[in-house]
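step 4 of 6: structure.
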Amino acid sequence: MAKQILRCTVNGEPVEVLVQPYVTLLDALREDMGLTGPKEGCGTGDCGACTVHVDGKVVASCLMLAMQARGRTIRTIEGLASADSTLHPLQDAFVRHGVPQCGFCIPGVLMAAAALLEENPRPSEEEIRYGIAGNLCRCTGYTKMVTAISEAAGTLASQRSAR
Amino acid sequence: MRRFDLVLPNSLEDCLKILAERGAQAKLVAGGTDLLPQMKNGVLKPAVVVDLSGIARVRQVQNGNGLRIGAAVTARELELSPALRGAYLAIAESAAMVGSLQVRNLATVGGNLCNAAPSADMAPPLVALEAHAVIAGPKGERRVPMADFFTGVRQTVLAPNEMLIELIVPPPGAHSGGQYLRHTPRRELDIAVVGVASQLTMSDGRCTKARIALASVAPTPVRATAAERSLEGQPVTPDAIERAATLAIEAAKPISDQRGSVEFRKHLVRVLTRRTLTTALARASA
Amino acid sequence: MSTMKTTRDVKGVGVSIPRPDGPEKVTGRVQYVADIQPKGLLHAKLLRSPHAHAKIVSIDVSAAKALPGVRAVLTAKDIPHLKKKAPTRAHAVLAIDRAVFMGQPVAAVAADELSIAEEALDLIKVEYQVLPASIDPLKSMQPGAPPVADAGTEADTSEALAHSAVAIAKSAAPAKAVNISQQARLQRGDPAKGFAESDHVLEKTYRVPMVHQGYLEAHAVLAEWDRNGLLTLWASTQGSFNTRSEVADVLGIPENRIRVIPVECGGGFGGKIRALCEPITAVLAQVTKRPVRYVMTRREELQAGMPAPQVIIKLKTGVKRDGTLMALDAETIIDSGAFSGAVLAVSAVFLGSMYKWPSFDIRGFEVLTHKPSVAAYRAPVAPQTIFAIESHMEQIARDLDLDSVEFRMRHLIQEGDPMVNGQPWQSNGAKQVLARIAEHPHWKSRKQWAAAAGKNGRRRGVGLALGGWLGGLQPTGATVRLNPDGSLAVLTGQVDIAGTNISLAQIAASAYGVDTDLVRITTGDTDVAPMTGLSAGSKTIYTVGAAVLQAAEDARRQTFEIAAAELEASVHDLELTDGKITVRGMPDKGITLATIGKKGNLYMSKTPPVLGKANPAFTQQAPGFAAQLARLEVDPDTGEVTIQDFVTVQDVGKAINPLGVEGQMQGGAVQSLGIALTEGLMFDDSGRLTNPSLLDYRKLTAADLPNLETIIVEVPSPAGPFGARGVGEPPIIPAPAAIANAIQNATGARLTELPLSPERIALALANGKH
């Protein structure tokens, strides 16, 4: 059971890291790459706290073996803000609307919301609710999240039209 | 998770070779969404895990005189696939109900079927559409009707040295429509208490073929054959639908568990059969 | 509150200010216990009993110890000071000779990798002799039931004290049955006569299953010992001082040998008050001389966490035809699992205290069963109790054709009315929130709305309920320092989970007289912070806020005294504006806070550094009431409920930070709706949990809910900072009754067992009861 070499792209950077064959992508990100933003809330794909993007799609990284990410492009919460560390409009809206309480679900929710807005730039309230339905939150009741995501969609749209 | 060897074959041939050597102690992983929770809970402790993500052949959907769906196509791809419209819509509907988005981007149709949970959402529409499983093994490929694929709870016809590679869905003919519905207490992130797929093919106002398949009411997905027979050759009136919905209960042999009682499951078979037949009729007639 | 006035309003109390650590939380930079990776870290796993009740005949750990990578394998034998008759779960570190619930730890492993630790568990051979188990609390109450606790074990009432400060006399009668661990009885007047004179007698039994607090971060702890024998615990806890005391008590080491660092807590809701896995992790770290981290899996959390108790309430009421209350007979049975510790008093008191019953007989029993023992969950036992009362009151109003709000209002308590334990109700906004929700357009239009057809034959209903919480108290401390640049540093031991620190900063800012952005709050560990109470019981702002307020006032007083000396003026002639203290009417004669701050830190300076402190204890509770209203649709065939609108009206006394208050109200409402609709731990007859995953333990998702409306009512509390009351608990209380009442409004079915699942609703309707 020797370690294997995982080559992939993480948050825009090419990565080469030795991982045990039996670890999940979540474990490899957290323990081997120091990216502890994605969280383990259940380990069985039922809570969304471990949500990351793989090739632009949201996945439960607790259910993917690390080696299954070979050659693929991964984005975690650490890669959501821009390189100069300006917050993504979603992150900014979450802060201003006072969304985070305990904060444990937040990285996963933000990654789900970011993927949603990339696929559907102006989602309805219902589409937002289904877009984050794979992410359990115990603190907020979701209302402020939905408001913040809706507002960030507007911000992103006006940023696009300004360009 | 307990430790295991991980093998990463790049072709079907390599994969079958590994299965021939170590199949009895191996598990195939595609999406991992059913396998990994069972490994984490210690229900499964395979010595070898074989990853299918390097095998291109099992990842394609082809449309033309029927459908060919690779076993490692994800639920999300099926949900969005333009090939799964019209008469095949029930498959896309069932795929759209699996887990959450984060799970559907990983979960595959082959995994859903090979895991062989009684609640597997993608089984009933494939049974109702009379799909065949294409199974590869040391002696080549064989085809098994979907209705015969499952042999018990978490059991299939697959031998340890075999793998499911593809599903073939025959063209259901003109004027065919279907629907898959399931009941869950939550709208997302849930598992079927009961699932029902109905597929109706109509001609001159009469039903020429009816297929009704049920999930979560028996050790395997089951067809409600008495209900099907009651519809075939007849106009599909509201009364006929109600009669079929009542007959469908006969096919259900559910257990009471944490997700629902025998009484509630039988009740749901009737409600969901009624609803899916009504929609299937409208879709077939559209 | 502040005795000295500033000349302008500071940006402080009453303003919605986002929490300053928000950017850390949205970028994933905040560290929780599982994110900390010290060098040489070992991973712990626990072997847990597969039986609800079994004698442990023998344990063979030799094969596990021989597995390469395993650094320690422990059983109870290896921890000599473990004793039988453990009074709490924390004390039962590992089962000694008997396992009393499925999932109880029996052995512990520390290994280089988690995978190796798991394999080691597989190699431990335990021989069990399975014993008959008491699973159902009603059966467990009977004489002759299989006993849960070792004979002579004391009941644990510390949770009740921590949470509610509800005092009731313990029943003098000794428990007859072996598994009844606490009893209470409250009586007044002559209920028999009251029932005899009643026109309407209603008797129902209400049932609520065990529910889990559901925090997203499972229990986690990291333990390390230094060479001097000092233990450091990085803990996910709601109270670091509480964790320190419990661990010291369990391990028999002095508190000054333990330092608890409260790491960011990924939710607690009452479930992270009591110690759980901290003691065994500390022992593993001691034995291995390495840092050891233990993180519970979600499955372990659900199977062997510390959920809220199962509650069964039998209610019988007698009223006159005109709605006059006559008599109440109530019995509340609380299934506490394998260890005592439920807050029996809350249920007993709330059963009879919200409405003015002239006569009552209320009996309460805490019963032990072979199931995981319970702990607090946000307003412990209040949602369960209010579900019974508020369902019952609605049914009475319906039976007698009375307006349900008027009926409640007529009998609702107000300040000074006696509770069933004889204590007077403190000032509260019960009537105000009920009146406010009755004015809501959704309530006023309920008949028209319910009469209109729902989509696809769904039936519509509107319902409301009222609930309250007495408010917790705990002594606490805080300090406020003036920095050399004129900013303020506030130190408490308060664990900030929901964003309370920004509210504390607002309180300090308003009390001292600066803007909030000049105040930084630090949560210190147990070595550095003043003793601070739990983040629990809706008391952070009420008590820690009061301490911060007093400490800030103390700091201001000191600052003004220094300024008065410097300016050669009377303290009473000074005012603080924009960071500068001036003599009133002489704007040029002044000294800045920065100057005063600097003087406190200058070599050879004679000016003392400003250090405000306060360490208050409290006696006066501030009850908080909330009313909730639901408009919903029911699919009569499948029993599916769609909530269209949900309104929470809550008296918060004073909203220190309305943004945070709304977040509490919305989050509490959704937890309450989960209890109402989908949640419940389900045990089979053998004591096995049948739904140990978040797929089958159904917390509500965003797709199951509408946007939640919040209406803040402010009835100032006499003693709270700026009139504030506790905010956390009230919004989790009324929803189950409000939903049950709305479902009855929609379908005619009165359901008395939670959760109000599609199955219960559909079968009630299908079986023609309605």
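step 5 of 6: annotate
 - The radius of gyration of chain B is 19 Å.
 - The longest helix of chain B spans residues 262-285.
step 6 of 6: archive
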